[in-house]
Amino acid sequence: MASLTPPISHNNLDFSDVESNISDSTNDSTPPPYRHKRRNTLRSLLKGNGWRRSRSPSPIDHNKRARRRVMWKRVLIVGGILTFLGVIAGITYVALVAALIKRLSPPTMRSGLQRITEGWREPNSSGPYTFPWPEDFSRDITPANCHSHNDYWRAVPLYDALAAGCVSFEADVWLQKDNELLVGHAKKALKNQRTLRSLYLDPLTNILTHREVSKASDPSLETGVFEKDANASLVLLIDFKTNGHDLWPVVLAQLEPMFNSGWLTYFDGKEVHRGPLTVVGTGNTPFEDVIANSTERYVFFDAPLLDVANEKYTTENSYYASTALKPAIGRVGPIKKISSGQEDKLKTQIKAAADKGLVSRYWSTPSWPISLRDKVWTTLTEDGVGMLNVDDLVSATRWNWNWCVIAGLTLCG
């Protein structure tokens, strides 16, 4: 009987060689070649240089970069040239504008009136602003037929208008409980010190006294407010803001001393005697009160220009014939210029007033844009308007309206 092979015992196996091989493999610090290459490649990719090192630039890439550098150089050169030319153009433009302004600006007036406007102060409890009388009060000032619209709004009421040469000026009056006449456009803007006396009547009295003007009873005005034109009569337009019948006697009472001095234009029942100052009532001025006194009438009426043909308006009771521009000829604006039909209406209305001996005046004329304003001014004066209603005194009297706007640049106004 065959004998069985005895089982292998683990205790009899010798593993020393295997353990020695494993130990040698573990302690070997040199990595396999493939692992070393993979780690270096990963590091290169992380640094962003892997692909660059992997291949060298092609000639096409060099050409693109060269063209790009040339293009940017050209852009910088062109940009530099344009910037330089822009700076030169800007300097040239500013120089031309400065030269135009210097060439076209009117010379500075150094009359006594100009010095008065520079030193003027608001009236106070002591009365109106006073000053030593200048002998060159109106020297070199040429009077013009312009009306200082809302004159009391100006920095220097009355004197600014006279310094510019405007012969007409406006005062809105409000009757108070103490029979004082305050001057202002709106009731809330009234101030106790700004009265008809302090802003207009007292200063005018001072001027007419020192100028030793001719009297209304004299055959002719040999001496007036303006040295250049003694015949230029001033016009005070009083706009009655409150009840006209209540205002009327108070206005007459305040004007009476000037009438007694012989300075006011008046109607004696037969003829009109023109003095150095003419007073005209507008607004709520009652026409029936104006004509009530037929022998010593020294306040005249502002007749409606659109009804000037009415036989009741004559030089014996009226001086101005006025209207707003829009009701007279229609709308005039930046887009809609004065048409030939509108100008024909202006000519007809102005002639109608002149034929009756009245002074035509249009208020509420456009003040902007300056080119439109100047066009309206030019049209009115060429058509023979009696008095030009203005807000900008210096532009109206001392600038050449044809040169106020040049190439879109406003030089005046």
Low-pLDDT regions: 1-16, 18-29, 49-54
Radius of gyration: 46 Å
Beginning-to-end CA distance, first to last residue = 144 Å
**Integer count of domains:** 2
Structural class: alpha/beta
Q: Determine the number of helices (DSSP H or I, runs of at least 4 residues).
A: 13
Whole-number average pLDDT?
A: 86
Beta-strand percentage range: 5-15%
Percentage of residues in helical conformation: 40-55%
Q: What characteristic shape results from the CA principal axes?
A: elongated
Main pleated sheet = 9 strands, mixed
H/E topology pattern: HHHHHEHEEHEHEEEHEEHHEHEHEE
List the helices and strands and how they pair.
Layout: H1 16-27, H2 33-46, H3 50-54, H4 59-104, H5 112-119, E1 144-148, H6 159-164, E2 166-175, E3 181-183, H7 196-211, E4 234-240, H8 244-260, E5 266-267, E6 272-273, E7 277-283, H9 287-290, E8 300-304, E9 318-324, H10 325-329, H11 340-355, E10 359-363, H12 370-382, E11 388-390, H13 393-398, E12 405-406, E13 409-410
GO molecular function, one term: phosphoric diester hydrolase activity
Family: Belongs to the AIM6 family.
InterPro entries: HAT_RTT109-like, PLC-like_Pdiesterase_TIM-brl
Q: Gist?
A:
This protein is an alpha/beta fold and 413 residues long. Helix content is 41%, strand content 15%. It folds into 2 domains: 105-293, no CATH class; 299-413, no CATH class.
What would you say this structure looks like, in words?
The chain has 13 helices and 13 strands. The protein folds into 2 domains: 105-293, no CATH class; 299-413, no CATH class. It has helices at residues 16-27, 33-46, 50-54, 59-104, 112-119, 159-164, 196-211, 244-260, 287-290, 325-329, 340-355, 370-382, 393-398, and strands at residues 144-148, 166-175, 181-183, 234-240, 266-267, 272-273, 277-283, 300-304, 318-324, 359-363, 388-390, 405-406, 409-410. Strands 1, 2, 3, 4, 7, 8, 9, 10 and 11 form a 9-stranded mixed sheet that branches. Strands 5-6 form a two-stranded antiparallel sheet. A two-stranded antiparallel ribbon has the order 12-13. Helix content is 41%, strand content 15%. The chain is an alpha/beta fold and 413 residues long.
